[in-house]
Write a structure and sequence with these properties.
This protein is low in regular secondary structure. About 15% of the residues lie in helices and about 0% in strands. The chain is rod-shaped and about 85 Å long.
C-alpha cells in the first residue's frame, strides 16, 4: 500500500481498496504522486461499444445489374 520511493500511500487500483485504514494512512503520510516504483495499473481492453458486423440504419440498395 505504501510507495517504495516516498513512503506515502499509493493510489488505489480498485474500489475495494478504499477503506477507513487507507484513509487514515493518507491523512498521516499523504498520497503518493511521485510515480516511483509503485505497481503499474492493470492493462484492460477498451470497452466495446459496437457490435461485430455493424448495424446500418440507412442502407442504400446497391444495383448490381450491368448498365448498357
Amino acid at each position: 500500500m505504501l510507495c517504495l520511493t516516498c513512503q506515502r500511500v499509493r493510489p488505489a487500483l480498485s474500489r475495494t481498496d478504499y477503506t477507513a485504514d487507507r484513509a487514515r494512512l493518507i491523512v498521516l503520510r499523504g498520497l503518493c504522486t511521485c510515480g516511483g516504483l509503485a505497481a503499474p495499473a492493470p492493462v484492460t481492453a477498451p470497452a466495446r461499444t459496437w457490435r461485430p458486423g455493424g448495424v446500418r440504419k440507412h442502407v442504400v440498395p446497391r444495383n448490381d445489374t450491368p448498365r448498357p
